[in-house]
Amino acid sequence: MMTLRDMLYLTPIKKYQKFGKFPWKLLISMLLVTFTTCQVVLIVNKSTTYAFSQYTLWNALFLNRNIQGSTSPIVNTYNLFSSDHTRSFVQTSVNRYYYVNSYTIDDYEFLYNEDGDKRPAKLLVEYLDQESSLSKGYLVEYDLTIVDLGPFDLDPDSFLNEVLSFRVVFKVKHDMNRYVETANTCFIWEITQKYDYSSHGVVTASLETSRKVCSSSTCKP
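Structure (tokenized):
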């Protein structure tokens, strides 16, 4: 007969040794932990694979456009050697953003402002002399569109002579409920091109990406 003391203080194994009561609760708990751990590992692996796959895509679209096939290494910088080359690179990137689904297999969705307009690509600038550059009419933030590249449509040489660095930021939504079993199925991707001109001579472009889960206001009903 198992006493209250035995029930409270004996481990499941001791109860089995003393009373022959098989530790079903212990076994079920261990199985639950095992199955949960396996499920988490599978989801994390799929999420990591998904993130790397997306980064490969963004890298090919917005940085190293000559990457071909799985054997090509992903290079994280790209050098631009003239103002015309820099303008062309920015223009191509902006065009690819606005027509992103022409370059991809999956469909990506745009984010929209409260007035219903598509959110433009953002150009954010850090100047060598912020006060002097602002007095000349330059801005720290521009909205870039296919027909308006901000300072690159005026005088790229003069603009770059003022610049320490600048960034171009793109945002898209990827609703992939039909594709991959990840922890979440809807993400907002922020793709940032960073342009460093601090040493002059060459503009070094690099890519940074981040994602966050869609909020209730950006998910489909």
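Helices lie at 4-9, 12-19, 24-62, 83-98, 130-135, 156-162. The radius of gyration is 27 Å.
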